[in-house]
Design brief:
By secondary structure, this protein is of the alpha/beta class. 24% of the residues lie in helices and 19% in strands. The relative contact order is 0.15.
């Protein structure tokens, strides 16, 4: 699959296309959103993971945008596996708008944040409307011909993130990262960043239960069990949020468990996803270093989920030689193949 094939063309029956990129231990999703006769290009988070053969998102975007600036970069929260690579994109491609949480990860917690802050401060000086701090709302934002509905963070929690203890600050940022869904009417794709159980139980479910449904869910925090449990020792999984979202398909963005420094995706979390949707509707980017994409049609249809067959990670891997030396061999596939999750 060629990078230029990712972006829908005039006349396609596509309102929104979401492309879940394999970026190793991290998250990065491309959204193409219809805007009249064209499509806006939105990048949600970014990471550069050479160790696990992650896609060079900047290089990929260069081929897709063909000289055009990125319309929007949306950062769900300021941790490095969601922000590493923004500088390259800003410098080499250009960014028209940035939406972010407004939270500071704390001194020494993210070496990429200071540069990110400098870039967006510079953007604000040139155009105050080009940078926006997002907050949860009961009403959706119009974006192109579609809508973006922000469910979190809540306005009242911003002062809480000033906590000086770095571990608590990190937890609070996960608890209050941006959670949003994109689509229109009854058709939605949800992006929850690294939101955890506390985020959904305390801040989202009580206020947005009737607005949480989405046919496609990007698994929170790379398939971590902390969407379902407060701690690793909890025996019972809390599934109220998953039931409220009620997805048909789930995408897990993570390397294999053996590669992940955090053991993502956690097997007990994957089990909950499979119980909800069935094994053939749970997709794991790291299993075969594949990227997945799904469309919301102009007619309101959603899916099916398709794969690039690993073509993008083959062509755009940050460090292909190192991956070969480690003996990684992906399963053969082709664009359009649909594979269930593997997590051994």
């Amino acid at each position: 699959m060629k990078a230029t094939e990712l972006k829908p063309k005039k006349g396609d029956n596509v309102l929104v296309r979401a492309v879940f990129l394999y970026v190793g231990q991290g998250d990065s999703t491309l959204l193409f959103i219809k805007d009249g006769d064209k499509y806006k290009t939105v990048l949600v988070d970014v990471n550069r993971d050479k160790e696990h053969g992650g896609i060079d998102v900047c290089k990929l975007l260069k081929d897709i945008q063909d000289g055009e600036k990125l319309d929007l970069f949306l950062n769900t929260h300021p941790h490095k596996d969601h922000l590493n690579g923004f500088t390259e994109i800003y410098d080499e491609i250009g960014v028209r708008n940035v939406w972010h949480s407004g939270f500071n990860p704390g001194k020494g917690e993210n070496e990429y944040f200071d540069d990110f802050k400098k870039k967006i401060d510079s953007m604000k000086k040139s155009d105050s409307d080009s940078v926006r701090e997002l907050r949860g709302s009961r009403t959706a934002l119009d974006y192109g011909d579609a809508q973006i509905h922000v469910l979190a963070p809540a306005e009242y929690v911003k002062s809480d993130i000033a906590e000086e203890d770095k571990e608590k600050r990190r937890k609070l940022i996960h608890e209050n990262c941006i959670v949003f869904k994109v689509g229109k009417g009854e058709s939605w794709i949800m992006q929850p960043g690294d939101a955890d159980k506390a985020a959904f139980e305390k801040h989202i479910l009580p206020y947005h239960k009737e607005r949480m449904s989405a046919q496609v869910l990007s698994a929170p925090h790379h398939g971590s069990r902390h969407f379902f449990k407060d701690s690793d020792d909890d025996e019972t999984a809390w599934t109220d949020a998953l039931d409220a979202i009620n997805p048909t398909d789930i995408i897990i963005s993570a390397p294999t468990q053996k590669e992940s420094p955090h053991g993502h995706p956690h097997a007990d979390a994957v089990s909950e996803y499979e119980k909800k949707c069935g094994k053939t509707h749970v997709f794991h980017t790291g299993a075969d270093r594949m990227s997945f994409y799904v469309d919301i049609g102009l007619d309101g249809s959603v899916g099916p989920v398709k794969t690039d067959g690993g073509d993008l990670s083959e062509k755009y891997a940050l460090d292909k030689e190192d991956d070969s030396a480690k003996g990684f061999k992906r399963t053969e596939g082709f664009a359009g193949d649909v594979k269930p999750a593997h997590y051994a």
